Amino acid sequence: MFQCPKSRMRPLSIAVGLACALPQLAFAQQPESTLADVEVIGTAEEMLRQAPGVSIISREDIEKRPPANDLSDLIRTMPGVNLTGNSSSGQYGNNRQIDLRGMGPENTLILIDGVPVTSRNSTRMGRSGERNTRGDSNWVPAEAVESIEVLRGPAAARYGSGAAGGVVNIITKRPSKQLSGSLTYYTNRPESSDEQDTNRIGFSLAGPLSEKFSFRLYGSANKTDADALDLNQQYATGVTPPAGREGVRNRDANLLLRWDLTDQQVLELNTGFSRQGNIYAGDRAVSGSGSQTLTDLANAGAETNTLYRRTASLVHRGNWGEGRRSRVTLAFEGTDNRRLNEGLAGGSEGSISTTTQTSTSELQNWMLNGEFNSPLQLGGVKQMLTVGFDVKRESLDDPWSVSNSSAAVGATAGRSSESEAKSWALFVEDNIEVTDKLILTPGLRFDKHDQFGNNWSPSLNASYQLRPEITLKGGIARAFKAPNLYQSNPNYLYSTMGNGCPDASPSLGGGCQILGNASLKPEISVNKEIGIAYDKQGWGAGLTYFRNDYESKIVADMPDQVPVIIGNIQLYKWANAEKAVVRGFEGHFTMPLLGEYGDRLKWINNFTWMIENKDRTTRQPLATVPEYTINSSLDWQATDKLSMMLTATFYGEQEPRSRTSGGSGATGAELQVRKPYHLFGISAGYSFNANLKARVGVSNLLDKRLYREANSSGAGAATYNEAGRALYATVTASF
Question: Does the residue 3 lie in any domain?
Fold first, then answer.
């Protein structure tokens, strides 16, 4: 375990305090230090984990609120977090992903033990910016997670492209000094037979192999059934109703080997394999009617897309004495995405080919990164300097994405299905204890992309202690996101024979086509936040204002472009929009009710209030997010063995787009607002002994059910299902 150095720093040196009290929160665990008398200040990374827009989900939180399958079920209860699509189209309304501060899932960077996870990038992107994907928050079973860090706003800019909204770091359990293991079974049973059942079993085993070698092995198998095909039957406009929620079959296995070379040098090898297959529920993205083939697929519980993910990493961590530490990581991630062919020509976007032919896209990512931390003292001012580097190579081969012939790009033959991007970055950060009350954390990151040039990401975060229990914090940072491999590939062609073409465009008989664009610019976001926090004897409160000014968002909004006419085809490209803005408030409040500092009973609350989330040119929302979200819970440790929890979540009104995808003004049901609603839950856990514990609960206690009323924005904001009442139970045996 990381040993805290003795420090004469004043109370504001919270970075070291965090590292001492909560070592499991670190992105990379450090080997033991034998230099206990060294006086150091915490690193910039440790300091940024205490910014206003940072939340921590502990192991205890996961056990008290176990997710049915995807970790996003729990992450969504943090301030600033919602589940949305990557646009306000609602096309894949039930495949919602983690959205931080309204910036969209594509601007949420998922990490596992600090290593980026990008398997969703193997899924084609349609013109709305949506992917038919569950995202990347479901690759680690809940039983294998030690904690989860959610970083929003300026604190996340240090992680480079894709972190403009924020970062979710999933931290897995580490090898132990004694042999230990566990076996967990989880089940979720909805009251309605039309909704998803879940069954999951997971195991873990960890311990020493010898004096210097240790290991950790975990695995799981999960099946979540799909919603019934007729779940949303009352909203059918044709034979087939809007689709419910897909099911999923998960298989995960991971092995970590640790070698303690010396007391100060550690080498870790990590390798894993995961399989995720959907269970089709009839989703058709935009089409109002389906075919008999699609109905047959749904009734058979068929898989229409299956992802195979392989990972490997080698990590070296070193402690070089006097507070100097280093980390170097080499990582590989490979994803094979096998799908029934989706309609890219002559049919609705995302609809499945009735010939049920399959194709596979292959995504490979190589990453090499590292950093070195060293304490400094200049002019009597204590500092911790961090310098680091980041090298990435991403390659994609998707033959089906270039299978359409067109006068715009020539015949299919000769067009490469491969694309790749290479980038490298250098960054420097300094954590400076200016006074006993003020800490400044400036940073600068430089990225070099082989297609999109240079990008500078400066940042400045600050913390000022007004009183021992009251701290004022704020930050500003410039973040960016490079275009993905579909948006930038000039051979990638999306076409439609009319469905989705601009409403005012002439009908030339050849429909509309959209090409990838190698001349795109990166998306840029200037993120700002300021907040105040109170923390004393179990009482806690905070309020944060955030604002993200967003430029050059990459879109394919055809109504805002003038097409090139080639024969009877209207040709468009992915393009950079002008400006957008996201702003709002986040807050939290914790009240101890019983016991010392509330260790018996406490009331925990957080909220998010979105003031604005829209494109400044079109005035359309970037995503369909609630006006407000309030999460509240009563956490009662009734006895040493029995714990109980009552939860409540309140969602505000959700407004849809005011214009159609074709560009005309929306009318009728297209303007439907999803009204405020609330969900309650209750659960109880019991530890029978040190080796056996169980928990049972009821979600959506009052059975508030919502329905998907269209496969796209044709029903305004009513584009996803909220499941009804369900009973869940989990039991864990360990040794």
Answer: no
